[in-house]
Amino acid sequence: MNNHFFHKTLIKPISTEKSVDALENYKNFAFKVNIKANKKQIRKVVETFFNVSVKKVRTMIIKGDKTKFKQIPGKKSDWKKAFICLKKGSEINLSSFK
């Protein structure tokens, strides 16, 4: 699996209040992922790149907000969020993510 496929699947880690709480309490890591990526692809990329064992992957599609720019209606893009639960003893170092 090449680095290009990895960067097309995992876009960036999410660091919101909810995701930091999930990380501290349940060891769930949140990532913004490609909207076309499925759970098997996400699992494979995380296991390969970070060298960890994944217990569970949960995904959700976040609908884009309606916006206006100079009275012209528009819409932000939809995006996908993935929560990755790791098995005990596994840890992801997010500093290696770029």
List the keywords:
Alpha-Beta Plaits, alpha+beta, globular, 98 residues, two-stranded antiparallel ribbon
Instruction: Estimate what percentage of residues fall within beta strands.
Output: 35-45%
Number of helices, counting only DSSP H or I runs of 4 residues or more? 3
Q: What strand order characterises the main sheet?
A: 1-2-6-3
Radius of gyration: 15 Å
Instruction: Give the fraction of residues assigned to helices.
Output: 25-40%
SSE class: alpha+beta
Low-confidence stretches: none
CATH superfamily: RRM (RNA recognition motif) domain
Q: Can you offer a commentary on this structure?
A:
This protein has 98 residues and is an alpha+beta fold. The chain has one domain: 2-Layer Sandwich (Alpha-Beta Plaits), CATH 3.30.70.330. It has helices spanning 3-9, 17-26, 39-50; strands at residues 10-13, 28-33, 54-62, 66-69, 72-75, 79-86. β4 (66-69) and β5 form a beta hairpin. The radius of gyration is 15 Å and the shape is globular. The protein starts with a helix and ends in a 12-residue tail after the last strand. The relative contact order is 0.23.
